[in-house]
Recover the amino acids of this structure.
């Protein structure tokens, strides 16, 4: 565990602290503190972008930069569409990703590999980040008994994960000469898609919905961490480290 003391590190530390306070303090105060994660998170993305000279999505650290502000925006969208506040729920998810950003992941800068220098780079990675945030919220909302907003998050998340998977296939054909290479990351992304697809093809009771949403979230966590980072699964995506 290390404390980042530069300007980016201070933004990330503030983001983690605000997420924690959003969970701990009463909703009337917590929603303002959690809401502040949105501009702070966007400022962190903009600062990192200026530092590295390319969209910050090269590795796990940079991809995770997008998640706290996405989750904070999700809180506002749910309030607008459903009329409910999900501050504590989203702040918990936000803290889970903000803490490693501030204190665990390395912020070492690096050049963008040639394989990532494509117009599809940003929509592909951003699509997945949005999808993962929606799917995490779908599981948390279902756990909290908020079935309608959970279904809405699931629908948007599935659309985005489908789009990102399709864009990745097109990009793979441009970069490597084939739409599908059976790369470990591709296989796990497909497995994740199939789990969520099952939710649209079975009449699942709430326990089964929770089980499938939890299984899908577990597949996402394995894909972005263990499959990406473990040396047991070398492949085309091995550059996507911390």
């Amino acid at each position: 565990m290390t404390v980042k003391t530069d300007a980016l590190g201070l933004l990330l530390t503030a983001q983690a602290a605000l997420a924690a306070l959003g969970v701990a303090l009463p909703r009337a105060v917590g929603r303002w503190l959690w809401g502040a994660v949105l501009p702070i998170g966007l400022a962190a993305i903009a600062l990192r972008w200026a530092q590295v000279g390319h969209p910050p999505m090269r590795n796990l650290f940079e991809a995770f930069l997008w998640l706290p502000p996405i989750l904070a925006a999700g809180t506002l969208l749910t309030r607008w569409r459903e009329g409910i506040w999900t501050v504590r729920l989203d702040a918990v998810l936000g803290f889970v990703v903000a803490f490693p950003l501030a204190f665990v992941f390395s912020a070492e800068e690096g050049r963008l590999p040639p394989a990532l220098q494509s117009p599809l780079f940003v929509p592909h990675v951003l699509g997945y980040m949005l999808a993962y945030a929606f799917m995490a919220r779908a599981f948390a909302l279902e756990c909290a008994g908020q079935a309608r907003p959970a279904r809405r998050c699931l629908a948007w998340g599935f659309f985005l994960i489908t789009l990102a998977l399709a864009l990745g296939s097109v990009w793979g054909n441009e970069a490597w000469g084939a739409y599908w290479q059976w790369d470990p990351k591709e296989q796990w992304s497909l497995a994740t898609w199939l789990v969520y697809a099952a939710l649209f093809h079975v009449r699942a009771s709430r326990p089964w919905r929770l089980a499938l949403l939890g299984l899908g979230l577990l597949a996402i966590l394995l894909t972005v961490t263990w499959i990406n980072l473990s040396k047991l699964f070398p492949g085309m995506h091995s550059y996507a480290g911390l």
